[in-house]
Structures are given as structure tokens and as C-alpha cells.
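#struct-pred

JT: dropping the chains for the assembly here, can someone run the whole complex?
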Amino acid sequence: MSSTEDIIMAIPRELTQNPLRKIWMPCKNGLPEKHISQKRVCMTNCPTLIVTVGLPARGKTYISKKLTRYLNWIGVPTKEFNVGQYRRECVKIYKSFEFFRPDNEEGLKIRKHCALAALNDVRQYLSVEGGQVAVFDATNTTRERRATIMRFAEQNGYKVFFVESLCEDPKVIAENIVQVKLGSPDYTDCNTEEAIQDFMKRIKCYENSYQPLDENLDRELSYIKIMDVGQRYLVNRVLDHIQSRIVYYLMNIHITPRSIYLCRHGESDLNVRGRIGGDSGLSPRGKEFAQGLGRFIQDQNIKDLKVWTSQMKRTIQTAEALGVPYEQWKALNEIDAGVCEEMMYEEIQEHFPLEFALRDQDKYRYRYPKGESYEDLVQRLEPVIMELERQENVLVICHQAVMRCLLAYFLDKSAEELPYLKCPLHTVLKLTPVAYGCKVESIYLNVEAVNTHRDKPENVDISRLAEEALLTVPAHY
Amino acid sequence: MYHSQMELTQNPLEKIWVPWMSSRLRQRRGSSVPQFTNSPTMIVMVGLPARGKTYISKKLTRYLNWIGVPTKVFNVGQYRRDAVRTYKSYEFFCPDNEEAMKIRKACALAALKDVCCYFTQDHGQVAVFDATNTTRERREVILTFAKENGYKVFFVESLCDDPEIIGENIKQVKLSSPDYVNCDKEEAATDFLKRIDCYKLTYVPLDDDKDRNLSYIKIFNVGSRYLVNQVQDHIQSRIVYYLMNIHVTPRTIYLCRHGESELNLLGRIGGDSGLSSQGMKFAAALGTYIRGQYILDLKIWTSHMRRTIQTAEAIGVPYEQWKALNEIDAGVCEEMTYEEIQDHFPEEFALRDQDKYRYRYPKGESYEDLVQRLEPVIMELERQENVLVICHQAVMRCLLAYFLDKSADELPYLKCPLHTVMKLTPVAYGCEVESIFLNVEAVNTHRDRPMNVDVDRDPEDALLTVPEHN
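RK: done, full complex below.
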């Protein structure tokens, strides 16, 4: 028999569906109540401090930046704090490696001060600004320095995860120096020879006092040791979901030179008619593009190129023209526009003016009724990104919204910018990783196509006139 | 000429677009999942007895099969039991027992031969070679065999020196082994420890230096530390990720569906309706049940659909919403009754009965797609401890199939009735299941496979197994 208590419990709170994201939330008197239930999965309870460890030119900043980019893309607010940057702001002009000599007391004082200033900013980011992960990018090569950081983390309730990079291969180190050190602000007025010499001496300054994370002494710490650019990893005490994801990501990235080609399917029949979504085939111009793409790929003479498509007819038709094997990924399918599938923007404005306005208000988080949002797309695409990191030369033939998400990952674009990135038909984007980022080359394959890019209109109010809503709709038949 | 190259046709079952004309260049697999292995892979276990090798082998095999990678375990101990009918004592394992050494080597080779058959004849993709493989010599034999046949090799070594863990291990799985069927616990434990000692004498772990060109993961003390060397490809990377996320801490997983919904009552599939009054009663009963279980730190997960969230609300504790837990998307058939599907889409209805796992609704999903979608949920379930997952019929079937090692053919027909909680507790090498009906009546939503699955069957034949509804 149920008690009175159970009867009261038996009336669950009323639910209301947030009109933008289509998330069901409990509400009182018709207004949504605060609830943590919105998150896809709770990544961490306390913020996480990732601490890099390693001699100069071991890829710490490369890893810091890349990891930060990945975490932000999957929706975990992350920021990196490069202590070298603080040092450059403090000591306006860099003279020579002597600054880093372990017996340079003046230098040591300044460097310690910079580390503490950076930690202060970490605290501001994690405890005040709502950041979830901070990457503390410095050599942190002594136990003493790491102990200071751990005390700081403990005082503030942060989890600590160390990422140590060890490498003794002189070729890798030399390449590193050429790629990112010679162009550093520290060496603007030096010639290459001088810069290299000085940097090697700088590394030497650290070598004597370097205490790598120790299997025994540090067995209670959480860390990953990356050895020889990923040949080997030692992983110790992964505490939670976010650390597990970080480890998985770090174990999948590599630095072998390669290129990633992103493009959309050729122009489709629905594109021509200004309709979104659907599963139509290529228009005659779209077929021409597919052939042009085939020629382009041949000319590029790419070693072991992998070709990926979605499972929609138009990307597969495009790939077919290349005459090489390709993989179909359902995860690469275009964003599901739900009840708006195959509509023109004019029809969406007519049938769902409120939806149309909400979408313009927050295009990233807006979910079509019975469909998806860009935010959903990113989640869907994460395994694709992970596999892209593992692979070398890849051509991804996909769709407008999908390509925007992938591009945002490679070019570190924010959630606000992402849904408005320009990804026109019949244009290949060639991405080549270089230094800390990605070089982009845009190649238009000279086959005309409709424009499918709709800019954010001035007026995003739900009370706006139809003309204002449709101002930025691209021309179509 | 080129234009005809781009002619495609859509496979009616899985809705996959394939070229009209086939050609040597096309590696067309009609699956919804990109295939990442070219050569077959041998996973080779390494470690002293009672280090969890068989536990890992079975669990990994279950996971790989569930995500669609055909995998099989080859347990050399099993071959030994088939060869030497009766187990006498640990002396069989003494390194100076020549007779026994011969038998043991023959068993290993027989197992390798079966691995070969599995790859070449049975289209297997991964074979887990579960044995101690504690000497360099034995590992060399395996590496040579693999090289000759073009198989990749990935070693999984388990090292543990914690006597408590080993003791618990022996209790859980060794004492009940066929080897010790006629012994009392004390004798069995003593004999087994002596067996371990036999191996210790010749055990050479994978070496940081000498084995630096091999691909492997070393697991220390049940996962507090891992050493990963030379991961070659996608499948090895996934295996490493999985192994790093599993744990052996005792815990319980509760699976149930949302309470009966308005659409359930009408016999309609999919949609996003709210709970019926019976459904509300169930939600309250679920709350009572959960509180009565006194579960430590219980996490509650729901989908993004109204009916699971309404159900969770009644429990009165925080819950997480996962879009990945949403019910299978029935595309054009959303919110239809089976009778309407038969009426409007008789061919689709028949195809679904022919291969319910791979069948994809037009503009919708298949069970195969669902599994892909649910993989991150499974990964997080492995990381977690006590969890209650409030989901949907097709989703629950997929999750259950993972825990209970059900095949793709069985999966879509697993019985997951409304208002029934499945309590899963990992034990030994598998999962104990308890089914708890919370005593609130609900409609039946389970449609068995009918006898006649022909495309030209009569409507009555198709609708024979449709459960009752309003």
C-alpha cells in the first residue's frame, strides 16, 4: 500500500519543452525550473588542471593547443595558459639562453613570478569564469615546481592531470625547432644558425635539473607520459571521464605530415530548387563537379588517399566519379531538419515562423522539431574527427552543416561562428597542419553552382515581418 | 559514359546506396558501419594464472562482437581440458614435466590452427588467443604464425602482485572450474597457488627494450596503470580505449523502459508522448523500488524524450539526459500502428521481419545504427558504478544484448516489457540478471517474428503477432 508520502511523490513535476533546443525540462507555473538535466553527460564535477611536463621542444605547446581546441569543440570550456607568454610580457626583450641558466637568480625570480601569475589567471578562469579545464603549459620539469602546482590545485579543489612528453630523437627535436622556435618572438632578430644554437643551449639549461615523473615516487598522481611522439604511452590513475577522453585523444593524434581535403557533394537537384535536406541526386552541374573532383584528386597525386562519404545519395554519387574505393559513414549525413526536411526557407517562414526566428537567434543550439541541432551534429561527428586524427591523407565528401562542424574543429572556430562558416558548393578546402595550426587552401573547381549560404538577418525577433526573415535567402529556381 | 558510372540504387533493406553496376574498384559493404580492419587481428593474452586474462578475453570479445567486429576467444586451457580428460594436480604444469609440455604445446598449436580457420573460413576479424603465453619462446611461435598468415598481433599483458586481488580471483572463477570439480575449496586454492608458482619460474614479461617493436598494452594492478606500445590501427586503438575504461569494482546496473505512454496504449510506435495514468503509477512505483534498494551514489540516465524524463522525475533525484538514448527513429513510420505500416508500407514491413537487425526504416534507423549510437553510452556505463538507465524498447534490447552477449539475430527480439526493471550484476565471467515486475499493469508492446516473412504475404499473416492495443 502506498503511503501519503508516496502519493505526493507520484505526481512528477510538469515538463515543458524549451522551444530552442527542444529539451524537456521540469517547470513550475509554466516556467522552467533549474535542473542539471540538460547536459549530455556530466564531464567533471570539479574543474581539471592539465599540467604539461617536459624539456623545451618536446611538443608541449603543440599538445596544449591541440587538446584545448578539441575540448572546446566537443563543448568543454578549456583555455591554455602558456607561461612562456607571461615571461615574454614581463621581460620585454629576450637576450639569450643565459636567462634560463639555473644559477641566474634574477631570471629564476622572474620565471617563478610568471608561473604564479599564470596560476592566478587559471584560478580566475576555473573558479570565477566557469571554465572547466585549464591547460598549464610550461616545462614544469622539477618536482618542486610540480609540488607548488599541486598545492595550488588542492587549495582550489581542482583535479590535476599531468601530460609529460619525452623525446630523445634529435631529428624530431630539430624539426620542432625549425617549425616553431625559429619563428618565435624570442628570435625575431636572429639568423637561423644563431637561433638554433641559442635554443639548444637553452634546452641544456633545463636538462640538469629535469626530474621526469617517477613510476614510484609519483604513483599516486594521474598522468600520461608520451614517449617518442606517440610510440609509447604510460598512463597512470585515470580518475574520471574527461581524463579518459583526454588520454584517448592524445593517443590518437600524430604529427606525420598529411593533408585533409573537405568538400561538399556536387550540386543536388534539391539545392537547385532551394530546398534543404532530403536525399536527392546530383544535378547535371553536380555531376560535372564530381568529374572535376576526380581530375583534381588525380592531379594532386596523393599517397594512399582515403575517401569518405555520408550515406546520402549525393555524396556517394560524387565519390563514384572518382573511381576509387570509399567508405560510407552514417555519421557524416547532413543535419536532420526534422519537420522542415525538403522545405524552402520561404516555406519554413510560412509554416514555422517562430522556429525560423529561434534558429536565427541561436543557430548553434537550435534544434529542428524532430530533428537535430549543430550541437547534436558535433557530438555525432566526434568519432569522425577521432578517426581523421588517426588517418593520414583523407578526402571527406560531406554536406554544408557537417563541413562547417569539421572546419570549425580544424580552424578553431567558436560555436557562434561555426554555423555561418562559408562552405560553398564545388569548392575543395585543403587543410595542411603546420606549426601550431592549419593552413587552408580553397580551390574552386570552376563549375557553377547555386549559393546555399544564408547569412544571419538583421532582425531575429519572433515578431519580425516575413520579408525581414527572408532578406538573406540565397537565390534559387 | 561517366554519367552512368554515377547511377546508384538503394538497397531496400538497409537503405544503403550502391552503384548500379559493380566493378572491381568498389569495395562495397552494405553495412552502416565503416569497416576499419584490412588484415585480421590476433589479440594475444600474456600473464600468470589468475591475472584476469580470461575475464578480459571474454569481455573484450563480447564488446567487439556487439560493435560489429566478428570476434572469437580461443582458450587454450579449454583445449587442454579436452585433451587431458581428468585434471590430477598442479604437477601437470611443472616446467620439467616433459609429457605435459608436449601436450600443452600441441593444444596451443591446435588452437592456432582453429584461429586460422576462423579467419579464412568463418570470416572472423579478431581472434583472442587466451593463454598464459608467459615465455618469449611461446610468443615467438605465435608471432611467426601470424606473420606467415598476414595477421596483425596485439598483446594484452596483465600484471598483478596484489595477493588480495589474486585471492578474490581464485575464489570467483577458479574454485568452480572443471579442474576442481571434486576438490574442497582449501585443496583447490592450495593447488592453484602451486600452479601459479610453476609458471613464475619461466615467466618473462614483455620487455620495454627487447619488445619495443611489438604492439601491446600492459595492464598493471587491474588498471591503475597502463603501458601502451606501438598501436598500429583503429581497432587496436579502440581496444586500448575499452580496456582502459573497464573496472572490476562491484556494482549494479538497472535497465528499464519509461512508464507506459499514451502512444503505447494506442499501439503506435515512436513519437514523443507523455505517460498514461498507468505509466505515472509505474513511475511512482519505480521511485519506491529504487529508494528501497538503498543504492550507493546511484546515477540516473534518461533519453531526451518526454516519457523517460517524466518517469525519472518521479524518483525525485537528479538525472542526466542523453540524446543517444532516444528510441529508434522509425522515419516515415513514426507514430503509426503496425496495421497502418502493413497498410501503407507492406514491403517495408516484410523486409523488417526478414532481417530486423539490419532493416532501416525509410528516413529512419536500424538496430545496427542504434548500436553505433549507443556505443558511447556503453563506454560510460563501463566507467561508472551504480546506474539506472530509463530508456526505450529497442534501446534497452541493444544494451541488454551487450551485457548478456546476445547475437545480432536475437537482439531485436529480446523481451523488454514495460514496467519491468532488469537488475544486472557482474559476476565471474558474465552478468547475473534479475527481472523485477513492479506490479503495475501495462500493454504488451512485443511483436514476435511472424511465420511468414515473404514480401507477398497476406496482411493477416503479417499482423498475426501484433500485440493488443486500443
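JT: nice. The two ends of chain A are 67 Å apart (CA to CA). Chain A has a mean pLDDT of 93.
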